[in-house]
Amino acid sequence: MTKIALITGGSRGLGKNTALAMAKQGIDVVLTYQSKQADAQAVVDEIVALGRKAVALQLDVAQVRTFDAFAQTLQQALQTHFQAEKFDFLVNNAGTGLTAPFAETTEQIFDDMVNIHLKSTFFVTQKLLPLINDGGRIINISSGLARFALPGYSAYAAMKGGIEVLTRYMAKELGARQIAVNTVAPGAIETDFGQGLVRDNKEVNAYIASQTALGRVGVPDDIGPMIASLLSENNRWVNAQRIEVSGGMLI
C-alpha cells in the first residue's frame, strides 16, 4: 500500500527537496506552505510528473489557533486526493532563521522562534496524532547549531535544542502506537534560508567548507534523500535518535 507523507514548509529549500526525494521513493506527499502558493503548486506539479499524488495546503506554523482547522482541512484532502483516512509520515520541517547577537535578541525575536519552531512542532504533531497511522514515523528537523555554537543564533539554536529533547519524549510516549520519532539535524546548507547567507556569501561559504571534514558546504540533495531513506523500512528500528547530516562540520 502506498505511504503518504506530510511535510511542513515543503514549497522551498530542504522541504521541497525532501518532498521530491520521497516521491522518487514511491511516497505520496502533502506539503504545506505559508504564503507562496505558486511555489508550492510547482512542487506538486513536479511530484505528479514523477508519477505520485500530491497536494499543497496553506499553514502558518506560528499560529497555533489555526491547527484545529488545518487538521480538518488535511482530513478532507486525504479523502479527496488520496482516498485515505490517515497518513504515515510527518516531517516537521517548516521554519525560519532570525539572526541576532545574544545581547541584542529582543523578546519578540525570542517569541517568534518559540512559535515558529518549538511550539509548532509540539502542537502540530499533537493535533495531527489522530490522523497518523499506527506504525508511522515522525521526523523533527533540528540543526547542527544545537551541537556547536556560532554567534547570532542563540534563540534559534535554543529552540532546536528543545526540539531534540521533545523528540525523545515523543518517541517514548508514542511507542505504544509503534510510531518512531527521530531528529534530523542538518549542518549549513546552500539554500535561501537566512536570506541565503551560506549560499550567497562567498566568505561564509568558504569558512564553513574549511570547518567541514568533507571540505564543502552542504546542498539540499545531501538532506532530502537522507530523510527519505530514514523513513524506509530498512530503518524501522531507528528511534529516538539525533542524526546530524553536516558532512562532519566542526568536529
Verbal overview:
The protein is an alpha/beta fold. It has one domain: Rossmann fold (3-Layer(aba) Sandwich). It is 43% helix and 17% strand. It contains 8 helices and 7 strands; from the N terminus they run βαβαβαβαβαβαααβ. A 7-stranded parallel beta sheet has the order 3-2-1-4-5-6-7, with helices on both faces. Strand 2, helix 2 (37-49) and strand 3 (54-58) form a beta-alpha-beta unit. Helix 1 runs parallel beside helix 2 (37-49), helix 1 (13-24) crosses helix 8 (224-230) and helix 4 packs parallel to helix 5 (154-174). The protein starts with a strand and ends in a 6-residue tail after the last strand. The mean pLDDT is 95.
Rg from Cα: 17 Å
CATH topology: Rossmann fold
Major sheet details: 7 strands, parallel
Oligomer: single chain
Identify the CATH architecture. 3-Layer(aba) Sandwich
Distance between the termini: 41 Å
Low-confidence stretches: none
Text of the CATH class:
Alpha Beta
Q: What general outline do the C-alpha atoms trace? A: globular
- Content of β-strand: 15-25%
Summarize model confidence as the mean pLDDT: 95
The tally of domains stands at 1
Highlighted features:
251 residues, seven-stranded parallel sheet, 43% helix, 17% strand, globular
Compact overview of the structure:
By secondary structure, the protein is α/β, with parallel strands linked by helices. It has helices at residues 13-24, 37-49, 67-82, 107-128, 154-174, 193-200, 202-210, 224-230; strands at residues 4-7, 28-33, 54-58, 87-92, 132-141, 180-186, 242-245. Helix 1 packs across helix 8 and helix 4 (107-128) packs parallel to helix 5 (154-174).
